[in-house]
Design brief:
By secondary structure, this protein is of the alpha/beta class. Helices cover about 45% and strands about 15% of the residues.
Length: about 240
């Protein structure tokens, strides 16, 4: 990875605590650093079953501590995939209204834990085909602002933004310093350069807001990685 031009590596969260020593050893002799942890926890933060919510909260706390020990920017967290699991109680409150209030309470508790261990939660909006809740950067920012903690930030994924945001660059500028991490994928969900996403405009917006954190590839590799990954690095640098 270092020879390809990468500076960081994002790790899947499942079983990370058991792999932490191995990760440290593997990266000890390279300039590549652990950038972030992507999910990997059980349960669901917005499940109707209290035990499922408890499982997610406990697992996330463990991963936040493991991430802090590794020195990552934070833990990427998706509150829920698919449709609501909590009953709709209209006219009292809709399922989404209940979900948002519950998520703010959970993020306050997890944000306090992240603060205590020296880590950060990164709320990730997805596209409409993967979730019903947080779809745009503004959706995630609304939760982040309601929580009001520096240890709760948002991440922006160029693939999801290509579906949900009217203007990727404008959305990034509006989000400002709330953006703490980036996922890179083209409109085809393949490597940047294999779709029609305008990365130059997006990167110009990131420069304007002073973004200085990691950007991780989360996409398909259409061909030999030994060829395609260095090519992707070159392409991305040409867009900066």
């Amino acid at each position: 990875m270092e020879s390809y031009g990468f500076k960081g590596a994002e790790f899947w969260g499942r079983g990370l605590s058991e792999r932490a020593a191995e990760i440290k050893e593997a990266l000890a002799s390279t300039k590549v650093k652990p950038s972030t942890i992507c999910a990997g926890y059980g349960g669901c933060l917005l499940d109707a079953d209290k035990n499922e919510r408890k499982k997610a909260m406990e697992d996330i706390k463990v991963l936040l501590k493991a991430g802090a020990d590794l020195g990552v920017v934070g833990l990427i967290t998706v509150p829920i995939f698919g449709s609501p699991r909590i009953p709709d109680l209209t006219p009292y409150e809709s399922a989404v209204e209940i979900e948002k209030k519950l998520l703010v309470l959970e993020m306050k508790e997890l944000g306090k834990h992240a603060q205590d261990v020296g880590s950060c939660i990164l709320l990730e909006p997805l596209n409409r085909y993967e979730t019903h809740l947080l779809r745009t950067l503004k959706d995630a920012m609304d939760i982040q602002k309601a929580v009001g903690m520096e240890s709760v930030k948002i991440m922006a994924d160029f693939f999801h933004m290509s579906i949900e945001e009217r203007n990727i660059a404008a959305s990034l500028q509006e989000a400002g310093d709330a953006v703490h991490h980036i996922h890179l994928a083209d409109s085809t969900r393949q490597l940047p350069g294999y779709g029609h996403t305008d990365f130059k405009l997006g990167f110009a917006a990131l420069k304007k807001i002073g973004f200085d954190k990691y950007m991780a590839l989360e996409c398909g590799v259409p061909g030999d990685p030994e060829v395609e990954l260095p090519k992707a690095v070159k392409y991305l640098k040409s867009c900066m």
